[in-house]
Amino acid sequence: MTTSEISSDDVRRSAPEAMLVGQKPRRRRLGRESVAAGAKAVAGLIGIFALWQVLVVVLDPPEFLLVGPISAFAELLERPGYFASNTFITLQEALAGFALGTALGVLCGAALHYSTTVRSFLYPALIAIDTIPKVALAPLFIVWFGFGFESKAFVAMAIAFFPLVINTYDGLRSVPHELQELARINKASRWKKMTKIEFIYAIPAIFSGAKISISLAVGGAVVGEFIAGSQGLGYVILLANSQVDLPSMFAAFIVLAVIALALFFIVDRAGRKLFPWKNHSR
Amino acid sequence: MNNEYAISVNNVGKTYRSKDGHDNTVLKNLDFHVKPGEFVSIVGQSGSGKTTLLKTISGLQELTEGEIRVKGRLISEGLEDIAMVFQAPVLLPWRNNIDNVLLPLEFRGTRTDESRRYAQELLEMVGLGGKATRYSYELSGGMQQRVAICRALVSHPELLLMDEPFGALDAMTRDSMNFEIQRIWQSTGCSVLFVTHSIPEAVWLGDRVVVVGDRPGRIVADISIDFPRPRNKEHRFSAAFSDYVTEIESHIGVTAGIS
Ligand SMILES: Nc1ncnc2c1ncn2[C@@H]1O[C@H](COP(=O)(O)OP(=O)(O)OP(=O)(O)O)[C@@H](O)[C@H]1O
Ligand SMILES: [Mg+2]
To answer: Which domain holds residue B116?
Structure first.
């Protein structure tokens, strides 16, 4: 017990590149701590719902302005099939966009890092494109890909793409120069350098990008549905809006929050499981 | 005649050229030689070009003047059997210790079944035989640096370059690492270039201490240390030892006054 404490102390003190060698996975404590953290998070959520409900009861706003969580949950229970099928649609669009955005983003980030030509031509352009709000592109995707599944997936992809480009590029760039030098002194081929050091080193950064992208992708899919949808949670919200059906609208908000959160945690957990050496929520 | 030396540095100069065309001459007219199996300590002020010198010898940086030969061969003909230890251990956190030690052989494509046994032997030599399948985050800073030293030795280098390898360690760990590096060096017989900021460490370890003066980096003193091997604690407290330390301090001080 004490020796492990001393050594972890040493590690922190002596390694300026602590990001590489110093992080100690807190696996032993994870059990109790994560249960406690989870309990606090749930308590916080319940608190917000309770406050929301209390406000609604106290202020008693008209039903076309605000409804409480109880009506929203009641709405969910009343039409579970309706919400489930629309959630499934949005989920599919978001996941397809996320997968595509991740694959392209990682490829692009790697190309930026490894090719000076790509970097000098594309990096400024990418930054410029990144400043365009991606939602603004949604109508264009509708024109290109029609009113169906594809256009929403592409909106999701366009939004999910950029964090992965930047994070992949940053992850590859942040490989300590000593490791580069070690590879050069030992005459490592470019391929060996990539596979034995650089790609693995960049993976935690890629996962932090993915954590941002997954929530963005859900938002992208919903925006696509706003513009040209006949199904999905975005469509549910629009329809509820036109019918002044606030319980249905708030039910959709809750479902959206839940799936975005769930997806975020899945990506986060996957990252921690696969790469326990690094707590990559920087 | 050059072949007698493990390293010969002949009239070497190095100028970094920045993008705006500004030249920074870091090394100038550097001349020195290292015999096979010799342990040479290098000291000098921060920024005097010690790291640059090691990088040119290892081929990581190109020279702008002169030539460097390792065992008689020009380094530009391809890197020789050189290994380097950095100030930070920089082990790969996803590999256990023995796999970290084996990394250079994987880079070279020379890893065999035999290699693993040798890596294990090296870890035992530095007292980490029982930690072979542990990960770096389970080790103290001193232990990590020992793994990094094994990683350098695994390719049987004839020349070991060390750039402030113990700079990040506390004084006590550092002392024991000094004993250890002396023992390792004596058992492998490689030549060592050892950069340090600690003059006592340089004197205690070195057959010679080379003082690099700054702006531009050049050799201002090259002092042979006449203590028998293996050296022990007593040498550190002898009068001769503090004379060496004082002498070297004066050389570093003089250059600081000029610049
Ligand atoms: N890659 C580089 N490009 C340009 N200038 C450099 C580069 N590396 C080092 N220098 C310059 O060369 C000089 C010597 O640097 P070097 O790192 O060799 O010094 P050092 O003696 O190792 O110092 P320290 O004791 O602080 O490690 C410094 O002025 C530094 O700014
Ligand atoms: Mg240096």
So the answer is: 92-155
